[in-house]
């Protein structure tokens, strides 16, 4: 299961989406017990990429057997490809009269009935009493907002959630299988992906991170043995696609934006080319961001509605457009917060 975005009453909302063996279920929050809705996959068809939305990238469409259309937007290309691959597998299995082979965590590792993994995850993420997130340098890469496998088992025992390490390992494997914890780095990924079962490793070499944390990994540059620029080190606060006006030609293009805190930067990318090479960056400390009704140099018919402007401390103006009024409000709030607190 991975967080995703779906349509409800034609408005785009962030949902927690779970692929079951015969349906896609979506929840308002990851910790909810019952889904807000579900899409049966028997007889369904999947379209990717889906071009129905000109202003939205990385969209795919699931059409149910009853011809109801559901649209989902991933946050990055790899995520969409993973979803598409698994949903197609599930649809193919159902066509052949089989169920999608995703074993129940509870059955496959014999979790006790009274264990609530959602509650355990919330406790584990607690700022004061939970598992501490670290920056770990390993194999010429810097992993931000992660922790080691043995730290998780130590925490489960110290909080009396497990009596011993084998019991702690069983709970941690449950959290990994259900997508609450995710593997970072080669050692933990091998454990999670190579065997028939998804295995959690009680090791200092194995790194993991919380599913909804600001985790990201930096590599050393190939030219010199230095870590990537300081501006990429902050935690990711928000990311998504917006329309941006170019500075020279004044034309509007879809760009993927990633907002980071401490240091306060927003980077923008060509959404078709991945996130290794940003087209530009905006240093947000001391900047001003406001909603605007129009853009001085834009022809009125070109862009209309949900516009906002960032003015940097050195007086550079950036004009952006969100897909909805709510999205504009969320971006403005996030950028204002980062520009005040981030260095």
List the helices and strands and how they pair.
Blueprint: E1 2-8, E2 11-19, E3 23-27, E4 37-40, E5 45-47, E6 59-63, E7 69-73, H1 77-95, H2 105-109, H3 117-124, E8 134-138, E9 141-148, H4 149-158, H5 165-177, E10 181-184, H6 186-193, E11 207-210, E12 216-219, E13 235-245, E14 252-261, E15 265-269, E16 280-283, E17 288-292, E18 307-311, E19 317-321, H7 325-341
Antiparallel strand pairs: 1-2, 1-7, 2-3, 3-4, 5-6, 6-7, 8-9, 9-11, 9-12, 10-11, 13-14, 13-19, 14-15, 15-16, 17-18, 18-19
Any overview of this molecule?
The protein contains 7 helices and 19 strands. It has helices at 77-95, 105-109, 117-124, 149-158, 165-177, 186-193, 325-341, and strands at residues 2-8, 11-19, 23-27, 37-40, 45-47, 59-63, 69-73, 134-138, 141-148, 181-184, 207-210, 216-219, 235-245, 252-261, 265-269, 280-283, 288-292, 307-311, 317-321. The protein has a 7-stranded antiparallel beta sheet, with helices on one face. It has a 7-stranded antiparallel beta sheet with strand order 16-15-14-13-19-18-17, covered by helices on one side. α4 packs across α5 (165-177). The two termini are 35 Å apart.
Mean pLDDT: 81
- Would you report the number of β strands? 19
Q: State Rg.
A: 22 Å
Q: Which segments are poorly predicted (pLDDT under 50) over 5 or more consecutive residues?
A: 1-9, 103-107, 220-228
Summarize the amount of helix as a percent range: 10-25%
Task: Describe the global form.
Answer: globular
Main sheet specs? 7 strands, antiparallel
What structural class should be given to the helix and strand makeup?
Answer: alpha+beta
Order of helices and strands: EEEEEEEHHHEEHHEHEEEEEEEEEH
Number of helices: 7
- Please state how the strands of the largest beta sheet are arranged side by side: 4-3-2-1-7-6-5
Q: What separation lies between the terminal Cα atoms?
A: 35 Å
Strand residues, percent: 25-35%
């Amino acid at each position: 299961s991975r967080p995703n975005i779906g349509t409800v009453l034609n408005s785009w909302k962030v949902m927690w989406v779970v692929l079951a063996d015969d349906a896609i279920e979506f929840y308002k929050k990851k910790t909810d017990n019952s889904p807000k809705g579900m899409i049966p996959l028997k007889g369904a068809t999947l379209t990717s990429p889906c071009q129905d939305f000109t202003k939205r990238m990385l969209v795919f469409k699931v059409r149910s057997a009853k011809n109801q259309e559901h649209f989902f937007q991933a946050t990055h290309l790899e995520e969409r490809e993973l979803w598409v691959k698994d949903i197609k597998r599930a649809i193919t299995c159902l066509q052949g009269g089989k169920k999608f082979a995703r074993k129940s965590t509870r059955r496959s590792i014999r979790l006790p009935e009274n264990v609530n993994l959602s509650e355990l995850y919330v406790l584990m993420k607690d700022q004061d009493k939970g598992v501490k997130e670290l920056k770990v340098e390993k194999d010429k890469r810097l992993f931000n907002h992660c922790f080691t496998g043995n730290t998780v088992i130590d925490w489960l025992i110290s909080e009396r959630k497990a009596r011993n390490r084998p019991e702690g390992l069983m709970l941690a494997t449950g959290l990994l299988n259900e997508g609450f914890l995710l593997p970072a780095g080669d050692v933990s990924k091998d454990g999670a992906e190579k065997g028939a079962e998804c295995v959690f490793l009680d090791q200092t070499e194995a790194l993991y991170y919380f599913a909804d944390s600001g985790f990201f990994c930096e590599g050393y540059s190939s030219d010199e043995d230095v870590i990537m620029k300081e501006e990429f080190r902050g935690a990711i606060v928000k990311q998504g696609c917006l329309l941006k006006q170019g500075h020279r030609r004044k034309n509007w293009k879809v760009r993927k934006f990633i907002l980071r805190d401490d240091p306060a930067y927003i980077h923008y990318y060509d959404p078709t080319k991945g996130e290794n090479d940003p087209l530009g960056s905006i240093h947000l400390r001391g900047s001003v961001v406001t909603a605007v009704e129009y853009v001085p140099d834009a022809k009125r018919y070109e862009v209309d509605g949900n516009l906002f402007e960032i003015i940097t401390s050195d007086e550079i103006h950036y004009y952006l457009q969100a897909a909805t009024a709510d999205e504009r409000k969320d971006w403005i709030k996030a950028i204002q917060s980062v520009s005040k607190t981030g260095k």
